[in-house]
Design a protein that fits this description.
It is built from 9 helices and no strands. It is globular and about 45 Å long. By secondary structure, it is mostly helical. 61% of the residues lie in helices and 0% in strands. It has one domain. It is found in: Cell membrane.
Length: 176
C-alpha cells in the first residue's frame, strides 16, 4: 500500500538531518534578512531577476509555518517599498498574499519534491506580477511592462536550487 493511500499520518514526510522543519529561528530569520539584502542589489530591480525574498517567504511558510507571520511579511514589504520607491504598501500586500496562499497549500506542498513544488507554486510566484499589473493599470500606466511575468518563471526555475540551499543549514561542530 502506498503512503498516500494510508492517509496523512504526519505533516512532515521525512525527518532527515536536513529537514527544514528542524531549522532554528536564527537560521529562518537570518535567511529572510539575507534574502531581503539580496533584493536590495541593483540587479534585483530588473524584471528578469527572481525575488529571493518571495522565494524565502514561500519556503519557510511551507516548512516552518509557525515562524512566518503576516506582520513579518508586511514589514519586509514596507521595507521593500521604501527601497524601490513603489506605492507604500504595494509589496506589503503582495507578500501577505503570497504567505496566505502558500499557507493554504502548505500541507500538500510539504509532501512533494522540490521540482513538483515548483510546478505547484506557479500561481503563487505570479501573484507579484499580477498585482503589479493591476496596480499599474489602476494608476493610469496602462498594463505595465509584460516582462515582469518572466520573474515568476525564473522563480519556478530557481525554486529547487533555493530549496536545496535553505535546507542545508549551518550546524556548529562542537566535537571536532
Amino acid at each position: 500500500m502506498s503512503e498516500f493511500s494510508k492517509g496523512f499520518k504526519s505533516r512532515r514526510p521525512n525527518k532527515s538531518f536536513y529537514d527544514p522543519a528542524f531549522a532554528s529561528g536564527w537560521w529562518v530569520y537570518g535567511t529572510l534578512i539575507l534574502s531581503w539584502c539580496l533584493d536590495l542589489l541593483p540587479l534585483s530591480h530588473l524584471p528578469y531577476f527572481p525575488s529571493f525574498l518571495v522565494l524565502t517567504l514561500v519556503f519557510w511558510t511551507i516548512h516552518q509555518p509557525q515562524r512566518i507571520y503576516y506582520w513579518l511579511a508586511f514589514l519586509f514589504g514596507l521595507l521593500t517599498d521604501a527601497d524601490t520607491g513603489a506605492v507604500f504598501g504595494q509589496h506589503a500586500l503582495t507578500y501577505c498574499m503570497v504567505v496566505f496562499f502558500t499557507e493554504l497549500m502548505s500541507v500538500r506542498l510539504s509532501w512533494l519534491s522540490s521540482i513538483a513544488q515548483s510546478i505547484s507554486l506557479i500561481p503563487i510566484f505570479y501573484i507579484p506580477a499580477i498585482l503589479l499589473t493591476i496596480e499599474a493599470f489602476c494608476f493610469g500606466n496602462g498594463f505595465g511592462p509584460w516582462s515582469v511575468f518572466a520573474q515568476g518563471l525564473l522563480s519556478v526555475v530557481f525554486w529547487p536550487a533555493w530549496c536545496w540551499l535553505l535546507a542545508r543549514r549551518w550546524v556548529p561542530n562542537y566535537g571536532a
